[in-house]
Each structure stands twice: as C-alpha cells, then as structure tokens.
Amino acid sequence: EVQLVESGGGLVQPGGSLRLSCAAFGFTFSSSAMGWFRQAPGKEREFVGGISWSGSITYYADSVKGRFTISRDNAKNTVYLQMSSLKPEDTAVYYCNARILSRNYWGQGTQVTVSS
Questions:
Q1: Taking the chain (116 residues) in consecutive chunks of 10 residues, what is each chunk's mean pLDDT?
Q2: Is the C or the N end of the chain the one with fewer CB within 10 Å?
Q3: From CA 71, how far away is CA 57, in angstroms rounded?
Q4: What is the pLDDT of residue 25?
Q5: What is the CA radius of gyration of the chain?
Q6: Which helix (H) or strand (E) holds 15?
Q7: Number of H helices, E strands in the chain
Q8: What are the backbone angles phi and psi of residue 87, rounded to the nearest 5°?
Q9: Shortest CA distance to 4 belongs to which of 20, 19, 26?
Q10: Which residues contact 46 (CB under 8 A, 6 or more apart)?
Q11: Burial, 110: exposed, middle or buried (Cβ in 10 Å; 0-12, 13-18, 19+)?
Q12: Cα separation of 48 and 59, whole Å?
C-alpha cells in the first residue's frame, strides 16, 4: 500500500525557515519523481515544486523559486522541502505527492503558518 507521511510543519515568523519531510512507503521510491503541493484556505491546491527520481532535476513554481529547495534521500525513502524567507502568503497545508501508474497519491498534509 502506498503511503506518504509529511512532517515538520508549524508556526514560523515572516522571514523564517522551515523544513518539511515526507516519508514514503509501499512503492519503489528511488524510481519515482516526487512533488510538493499546497492548499491555502479557500483556494485550490497548487503545485510548489518537484524532483526527479535521482534528484538531479528540480523545478519550482514561480512563487517559491529562489526561496524553496526540494531534495531527497533515496536511502531513507524521504523527500524534503526546505523553505526560507517565508511569507504570510506561504501559509497553507503542504502535501507530498507521488504519481504512480497514472494515479496520484497524497499524504495527509502538514500545516505551515507564517505569522508574527
């Protein structure tokens, strides 16, 4: 059974940093591209960034480019989202995503709140 478990969310002040983790189970993680999405209250879920199976290619939404970094550790079956220079508009539930055999899998999400 595919399972994605996010952690690391919390309350942070504007300008601060936070690192999210997503532990993956039940599929060949080292062969799978992974993604991060987020959903703010009253808004659609939006793409944040993605990483190739090897970690050699990363890509980001314009809104986070230069502030967020995605990485992965295939030995630990874990993908990370390092967030810096956080803004109040980054407040959202952050979700890990895996697309396997044309099906999307999601974690339960982790809340990130950026506020003073």
A1: 97 98 96 97 97 97 98 98 98 96 94 97
A2: N
A3: 10
A4: 96
A5: 13
A6: none
A7: 0, 11
A8: -120, 155
A9: 26
A10: 37, 38, 39, 61
A11: buried
A12: 9
